[in-house]
Amino acid sequence: MALTTSAVGSYPKPEPLVRARAAYAQGKTSKEELWELEKEATTFWIRAQEEIGLDVLVHGEMERGDMVAYFAELMPQSMRIGGLVRSYGNRYYHKPIIVDKLRWPGPMTVEMWKYAQSLTSHPVKGMLTGPYTMVEWSFDEYYPSRREAVMDMARVLRQEVEALVAAGCRYIQIDEPAIHTRPEEDLELAIEAFRLVVEGVDAIFHTHICYGEVEKIYPQILRLPVRQIHLAFKNTDYQYLQLIQQYPWDPDKELGVGVVDVHIRRIESAEEVAQGIRKILSLLPPEQVWILPDCGLKTRTVDEAKGKLQAMVEGVQMVKRELGLR
Q1: Full-model pTM
Q2: Which member of 23, 53, 158, 169 has the greatest number of CB atoms within 10 A?
Q3: Closest to 42 measured CA to CA, from 130, 111, 134, 129
């Protein structure tokens, strides 16, 4: 399909769910009550994406807070939650701590994926945080080396991937936003660990690499064993086009192009989105390009998130009409 539309992962949580999560953290509501509200919010976002017209959906991560701490909380024998650290701006998260050998606790994402997929005939992506990012964004008080920790985390995530595929999941996105943290030391390790997670598994794998100094890991990231690599083009004013001009994109991989900036409140126009897509199509055919936001939309309001998705889909439709594509 040409110019397939999708999203990166997270959406803003409706206010009733925000209040319920706070109440649950204080022991004032039950896990069962929280789960029902998480399912309601997931239903809301599945329906919203269908109405807006996305092709491949995400469940919205209504059950998750931080992308690393969520998994750490489900692995209490191996990890515990530490104190608050600053991630960016004025946003903080509880940085997990690896305290014992990393072991798969059983399915961590399958139940919510199955629920979301049951609501729609569109494919819904499975969503995981990659092994390198899981370790890099945690403290390690157990392993003697980073390599041992990352490879054991890869083994954990491999089992989660296999569980998702057994449940019927076709698309699985594995986010590695930390992959460019120390490329000289760890890029080879990150690629090797990713390979351990996915190789030999019958699924279509995507990865999301947001912001950071992508120029330090390109074109090496083309070695990641995935069908699609997604980058945040809009926030960088499409500067990544210069990298692709210098080192051509792999013809066997799709490029996921971020066309709306998730860090600003302003909702881009459809024409603004279309202009960005036209820039990409000067280098790659439409069949090789997916169109998405730059990153997850959880920091935006519900109306802002929906507005950005609508502009994205309308921009794609404009370009398709120009190209004579359906």
Answers
A1: 0.95
A2: 169
A3: 111
d(CA 171, CA 295) in angstroms, rounded, equals 17
Q: What is the pLDDT of residues 249-290, one digit of tens each?
A: 999 999 999 999 999 999 999 999 999 999 999 999 999 999
| DSSP, res 10 | B
Packing angle, helices 110-118 and 146-166, rounded to 10? 30
CA distance between the termini of the chain:
9
Distance set, CA 189 to CA 139, 148, 208 (Å): 18, 10, 17
Q: How big is the chain by its Cα radius of gyration, in Å?
A: 19
Alpha-carbon distance values, 48 to 44, 119, 292 (Å): 6, 12, 15
Sheet of 79-88, strands arranged across: 79-88, 91-98, 139-140
Distance CA 79, CA 67 (A): 14
